[in-house]
Amino acid sequence: MSTDQNPERQYELFLREFARDRSKLFRYIFSLLPNHADAEDVFQRCSLVLWQKFSEFEPERSFFAWACGIAFNEVRYFLRTNHHQRLKFDTELITEISEIRHVQLDQSGDILAHISDCLTRLPRRDRQLVRMAYGKNQTIKSYAESTRSAPQTIYNNLARIRRLVQACVQKKLATG
Amino acid sequence: MTTQSPEFMALLNALLDETISPEEHSRLCEHLRGNPQAIREYLSYVDLHTSFKELEERSDEELTADLSDNTFTKRETKYHWLRWAMVSAVAIALFVPLSLTWRRPAEPDSVITSSDNIPKDSSLIESLNTLTPSPVSIPSNQHDKATPDQHAVVLSQIAKAELFYERIPEVGSAIQMKHEYVLVKGLMELSFENGASAVFTSPAVFTVASPTRIEMKMGRCSVHAPETATGFEVVTPQGRVVDLGTRFSVVAREAGESDIQVVEGAVIYHPKSTDELTDKSIAKSTEDAAGTMLLEGEAVRLPEVSKKSEAIPFNRQEYQNQFPDRVVSYEAAPGPDGQGVRDLVSVTVQREGQNQTYPVEDLIGIDVIHFSAYSKWNSACSADELPARVDQVLTNSVALNAGLTNFDSAPGPYVQANEFKNFRQRHGLAVQFRQPVKNGPGPDVVLFELQSAAYPPGGDRFHVSPIEDRPGLKTHHVQQFDITMHSANALQVAPLFTHVFNQSPRSLDQLLKSKVKRSSRIHVPFHALAVGIDLSDLGYEEGASVPGVFIEDADEDDYVAIDVVFIGGLP
Fold it and tell me: What are residue B299's DSSP bridge partners?
């Protein structure tokens, strides 16, 4: 249990821990709920619960492991209570994924830096496509219309880019 | 490298693109369930997906916020502001800005069915290799032209190039598609409509299979494929290299292995499988092994009978970065009867990697100061009658069918001069520039000669020496012209006359006083060959002023001697 009772001090401690692991925590949640809207909802709720329960966090433990435990429960709660039509993994599968993901994320280095570096090695046209697909300014549908392309062509190109960047990252991880 | 099935990879992409159907989602779950390897692959893709988004958002922040470049500092600033609002009742509001703001996915244009979304009849790797050019930077009409087209691939440069049993097409003209070229000497560069260029270094055997594909049986090919040419391919018997917007070289060796060196950007290479290698037709193979990305500064060797490639030391020198400085081309005006060219109009020279075209009137003229032939009596040629002063065929003329010819040297091995200023004691042609030529980068002097198919196609070899003595000066041996009989850029000259004198002239004075014994119209077609002389090769330092040069025949055959029709200094 956190022993520092000063609320402001508590909050600073929380922010420090949360800021360090927020990206990994979101990836953890997204890997169980691979849908933008669902993952965002759960991440927001989880962030609140983490703050509410931070007084129970023992500083000698891993914040990320603790946060993943809470996030996993939040995901399960979401699956139980959310009945809209979006496709989801079942509890059995998310348990399997969670066990692997938790360890993987805890041990992973700066994957973001590797991905960023690999992205810079892509042709400009491919980088532009990634920016369009992951940016806020355009949808794939509108982009396809503006470029007179079939949406599936855009998706195929995104698949190709993911495959290339994945190969690049794996090579970087293998060579250290 | 993924070990998962193409279907699984396609399902992953559909999931991340949020275009997955319920049926596909069920199949994905089946793939993942009880399969840790598939789950790791899935998680790897999730990392890519979330990182792309995060990087894009950071990029947006960097563009829009006037904050430090340090992302962590930005976050601290954001949190610092938030702390003032810290009360548990508004905690939700506190966290809202912390969350990643995902854009809602685009709705597909139509219901994506399984057959729409997943390439069933070809692997995903295959679909990766069929790189659909994005219209972002390629006009749509270029896509339309990206089909086999006789005019799509152009011979853009050559340097001392020779093809086996055929003449090299004119520079700037289209080359023949699906035709096997055997480059036995020199360099050839092809330019493709999509912006790619490929330089072949002899010896090389290659075919241009399509506007985006070269097949190499042997030799070295250096490719520069800009982003408009992404997907450009070089195929060797051992594998296939797909460009991703880069510079790379492929060396297909006779011994049966191919080396790939990536100088810039990245490529994907696909070694051929052993089964494929049993099929000798590299064009026929349809199934490649999985591709591997090769990045800048990396090199790999594809062996002949194994799918396993091996990393090799990177060697930047394998990439032909630039053509040597040389005479690239020349223009000449047609003769009066239309049979061939006569007057030189301009010459294009590559100096320090840059092409420069010089109109003939800008070139520095010459005066003949010595002329001596050992045995030949036919010492001049002209378009029609000889001028009263014979050396004016060279000094006052830009005609490429008029000049001083056949100044052969004495039999026996070449003996270099002890003192260059004593050139008048030797057989050859000495010229003085009307103003000193400054030794600049690349060629400084251009020399044209006449040649017919009966004589060495590379041009008559010659020695070129200074006409003065200064420390470090030396004789240079020119073994081959830049524009040779092998190239269609060597233009046929208009009909000409040769003039036989009553003696072989041993000095300029003798030449000027000699009587013409006989003049004959030559019916054999002659071509004008050109070569650039770099005065640095004569030992001159950069920027030196050079008064003239001395030309000596270097061919050992009695019947072969150089026939100079034009010499000019570059301004």
Answer: B261
Domain boundaries, chain A: 7-107, 111-175
- From the list A27, A37, A144, which residue is nearest B46 (CB)? A27
* Rounded Cα–Cα distance for residues B323 and B190 (Å): 12
Report pLDDT for B510: 87
In angstroms, rounded to a whole number, what is the distance separating the alpha carbons of residues B291 and B260? 13
Which of B287, B9, B24 lies closest to A162, judged by CA? B9
Hey, what domains does chain B have and what are their CATH numbers? Answer: 6-121 (no CATH), 140-318 (2.60.120.1440), 326-569 (no CATH)
Of the candidates B60, B185, B124, the one whose C-alpha atom is nearest the C-alpha of residue B457 is B185
Cβ(B391)–Cβ(B508) under 8 Å? yes
Instruction: Supply the DSSP string of B338-353, one letter for each residue.
Output: SSSEEEEEEEEEEETT
Tell me which residue has tokens 């100088």.
Answer: B263
Nearest Cβ partner for A44 among B50, B96, B106: B96
- Amino acid letter, residue A101: R
Alpha carbon distance A95, A112 (integer Å) = 25
Count other Cβ atoms within 10 Å, centred on residue B469.
12
Contact A162 B13 (CB under 8 A): yes
CATH number listed for the domain at residues A111-175: 1.10.10.10
pTM: 0.58
Q: Minimal Cα–Cα distance from B356 to chain A, Å?
A: 32
Q: What phi and psi, each to the nearest 5 degrees, are found at residue B52?
A: -55, -45
Which residues touch B202 (CB under 8 Å, ≥6 apart)? B161, B162, B183, B184, B185, B186, B187, B219
Nearest to B70 by CA among B62, B80, B82: B62
End-to-end Cα, chain A, rounded Å: 38
Considering only residues B189 and A142, tell me which one the structure prediction assigns the higher pLDDT: B189
Best of A14, A162, A171 to disrupt the B interface (most B CBs within 10 Å) is A162
Dump pLDDT digits (tens) for B284-297: 333 334 578 888 88
Chain A partners of B92 at a C-beta cutoff of 8 Å? 44, 48
Q: Are B128 and A160 within 8 A, CB to CB?
A: yes
Q: What is the pLDDT of residue B422?
A: 92
Cα within 13 Å of Cα(A81), Cβ side: 9
Question: What CATH number matches the domain at A7-107, 3.30.1490, 1.10.1740, 1.10.10, 3.40.50?
Answer: 1.10.1740
Residue B230: closest C-alpha in chain A:
A123
pLDDT in tens, B232-289: 899 998 888 988 778 899 998 877 789 999 998 888 888 876 444 444 333 333 333 4
For residue B222, give both structure tokens. 């250096």
